Amino acid sequence: MNTKVFRDMSYGVYVTTSMDGERPVGCITNSIMQITSQPATVAVSVNHDNYTNGCIEKSGKFAFSILAEGSDRSLIGRFGFQSCRDVDKFDGLSYEMVEGLPVILDGCGYVICKVIGKMETSTHTVFLGEVVEAEVSDKKPPMTYAYYHSVIRGKSPKNAPTYIPEEDKAAPKAEKEEKAAPKVKYVCKICGYVYEGDPLPEDFICPICKHPASDFERVEA
User: Is residue 206 within 8 Å of residue 187, measured between CB atoms?
Assistant: First the structure.
């Protein structure tokens, strides 16, 4: 089965948030879709291992902020490659509370939902939410999953429903056997960002997860 076909499906990049008591929590999601227009309802898929999953379950509400192509890329590293179990993802971040939920200001807009149903899969919960508030901003265009991979050149967190293991990304045998001049690149071991060129500057900071050059691995293709 060639799972790369899923890359041709349309996705966005969102920060889905909820509350852990009085503490805001959130994670990166990309499987969100509108289900109906009247009343407006949406569905979001959240991995069972994401701390935010349990918080949505307990609070009965969630929000999602739509990231733009121009949104600070560190938001992806902050919300996609860390856990709210270990860190306060909202520390030092510009956000506001709307209908009791945190929303990211650096994006195209946000949607606030109350949970009205759910479906369990082996790895994810699909929460169905009725929209209670929504707003747009002047920041455009929205970031797509394709843009994230082709332009930002990031990888999906393992908890993402669209995650493809490295072995599934392997090139066909014929491609592997082609001989070509070695090409050097540096790959962030935290978020997968790829820096093309050699050498990697000693003071380089990953634009996605903000980790230093010491967390990059040299790869010769």
Answer: no
SS3 letters for 4-40? HHHHHCCCECEEEEEEECCEEEEEEECCEEEEEECCE
pTM of the model: 0.76
Structural domain contains residue 2? no
Is 68 part of any domain? yes
Q: Where are the alpha helices (DSSP H) in the chain?
A: 51-59, 74-80, 145-147, 173-177
pLDDT mean by block of 10 residues, the chain; 221 residues: 74 95 95 94 96 97 96 88 90 95 96 98 97 95 82 58 49 47 81 86 88 89 70
Q: Is 217 helix (H, G, I), strand (E, B) or coil?
A: strand
